[in-house]
């Protein structure tokens, strides 16, 4: 029974220690600061590489973890769409209502074509 309690205390101590370390490290990085500090940390972490943090004997065993060009191109395209979202939305709304407005003329044209085809097939 005493061994079980000892294991529980060690597990709890480890969890608390790692949590405290995470808070301490993120505070020292500046994550908990103002928005300018957060932005600086973001760009700093974004440009960080594993080779800057891990020793050479470990990084030599890791596979190449670069982001494929297709993915970065797609992310850029999505970002551009996101910037002009309302323009695309307005264009879509205009197209839908333009199609609805021209629907009677379109249906009349199709029905005229159908009548002509039926007349041709009857001959």
Q: Descriptors for this entry?
A:
mainly alpha, 7 helices, 81% helix
The chain-level mean pLDDT equals 83
Number of helices: 7
Count the strands? 0
Over all CA atoms, what is the radius of gyration? 32 Å
Give the overall form.
elongated
The low-pLDDT segments are none
* Beta-strand content: under 5%
Largest sheet report:
none
Straight-line distance between termini: 100 Å
**Helical amount:** over 70%
Structural class: mainly alpha
Structure description:
- The protein has seven helices and no strands.
- The chain is mostly helical and 123 residues long.
- The longest helix has 28 residues, at 2-29.
- The radius of gyration is 32 Å and the shape is elongated.
- The model has no long low-confidence stretch (mean pLDDT 83).
Topology at a glance:
Layout: H1 2-29, H2 35-46, H3 50-53, H4 56-59, H5 69-83, H6 85-101, H7 103-122
Summarize the structure.
The protein is 81% helix and 0% strand. It is an all-alpha fold and 123 residues long.
């Amino acid at each position: 029974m005493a061994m079980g309690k000892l294991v529980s205390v060690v597990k709890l101590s480890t969890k608390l220690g790692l949590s405290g370390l995470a808070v301490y490290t993120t505070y020292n990085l500046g994550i908990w600061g103002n928005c300018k500090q957060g932005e600086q940390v973001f760009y700093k972490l974004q440009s960080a590489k594993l080779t800057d943090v891990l020793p050479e004997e470990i990084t030599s065993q890791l596979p190449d973890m670069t982001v494929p060009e297709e993915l970065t191109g797609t992310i850029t395209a999505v970002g551009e769409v996101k910037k002009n979202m309302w323009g695309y939305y307005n264009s879509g709304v205009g197209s839908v209502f333009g199609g609805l407005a021209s629907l009677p003329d379109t249906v009349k044209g199709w029905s005229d074509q159908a009548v002509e085809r039926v007349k041709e097939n009857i001959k």
